[in-house]
């Protein structure tokens, strides 16, 4: 009997094969778990990191409790529709809905939108809230009579133009932490990082025609210069 036949007879190669198969199966499972975890981590983290890679970086920084209270204080005499632009985890929308507003949030990060919907459902205001996965620059806020924004200074000038051209003159806008650069607030609430500024659309919209007029005037001047 050859040495190989002897080994086969003793059953050793079969055990080795089983060991090898077992080890490669464990290897596959470990690779799958590690790979799956990395993909899941990327899927969750990417929407939070993405704002930092945009031209204007508007990261998720939730409003403080005092800030939310100041927003509600600023809008205490108001009712109707409200929108939080860049609604984060939905805390302002949910708090506003609890105070009787029909409140909506527009947010780029889908995880935050799903979490906001879940929170609204848990806190019993699912019917008076709505959350949209949208880019704030690609939607119109024309239907809202109360607007809340916790933005960054780099975006406020562009947002002034957008809101001034879209909102009805009955609207109020509340800016959290950073004021609008050229609008004049009718009031403020709170202090420090919790300050909020309240703007009346009638006032800031009255400046819009002049701006448009100025640009028309410039175009006409150019036209005459070209003749
Ligand atoms: C400073 S946080 C404010 C969150 C919330 N409004 C609050 O006060 O708790 C700004 C939010 O805007 C979102 N955001 C950034 N860029 C956006 C865009 N282009 N369109 C919509 N939301 C955006 C961010 O994901 C973030 O959740």
UniProtKB/TrEMBL annotation:
Membrane-protein topology: Single-pass membrane protein
GO CC annotation: mitochondrial membrane
UniProt region (Disordered), positions on chain: 1-21
InterPro entries found in the cross-reference section: FAM173A/B, SAM-dependent_MTases_sf
A GO BP entry: regulation of mitochondrial ATP synthesis coupled proton transport
GO MF terms, alphabetically ordered: protein-lysine N-methyltransferase activity
SUPFAM superfamilies to which the protein is assigned, alphabetical: S-adenosyl-L-methionine-dependent methyltransferases
Transmembrane segments: 26-50
Family stated for the protein in its record: Belongs to the ANT/ATPSC lysine N-methyltransferase family.
The name this protein goes by in its record: ATP synthase subunit C lysine N-methyltransferase
Taxonomic source organism: Oreochromis aureus
Lineage, opening ranks: Eukaryota, Metazoa, Chordata, Craniata, Vertebrata
Gene name of this polypeptide: ATPSCKMT
């Amino acid at each position: 009997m050859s040495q190989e036949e002897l080994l086969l007879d003793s059953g050793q190669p079969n055990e080795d094969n089983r060991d090898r198969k077992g080890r490669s199966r464990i290897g596959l499972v470990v690779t799958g778990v590690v790979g799956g975890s990395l993909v899941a981590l990327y899927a969750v983290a990417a929407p939070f990191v993405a704002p930092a890679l945009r031209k204007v970086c508007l990261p998720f920084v939730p409003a403080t409790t005092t800030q939310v209270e100041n927003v509600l204080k600023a809008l205490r005499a108001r009712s109707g529709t409200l929108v939080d632009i860049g609604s984060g985890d939905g805390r302002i929308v949910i708090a506003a809905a609890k105070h009787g507003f029909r409140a909506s949030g527009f947010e780029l990060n889908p995880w935050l939108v799903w979490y906001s919907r879940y929170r609204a459902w848990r806190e019993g205001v699912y019917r008076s809230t709505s959350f949209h996965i949208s880019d704030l620059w690609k939607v119109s806020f024309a239907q809202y009579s109360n607007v809340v924004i916790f933005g960054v200074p780099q975006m406020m000038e562009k947002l002034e133009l957008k809101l001034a051209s879209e909102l009805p003159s009955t609207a109020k806008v509340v800016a959290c932490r950073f004021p609008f650069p050229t609008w004049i607030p009718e009031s403020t609430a709170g202090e420090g990082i919790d300050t909020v500024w309240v703007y009346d659309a009638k006032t800031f919209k009255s400046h819009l025609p002049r701006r448009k007029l100025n640009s028309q005037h410039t175009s006409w001047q150019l036209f005459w210069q070209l003749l």
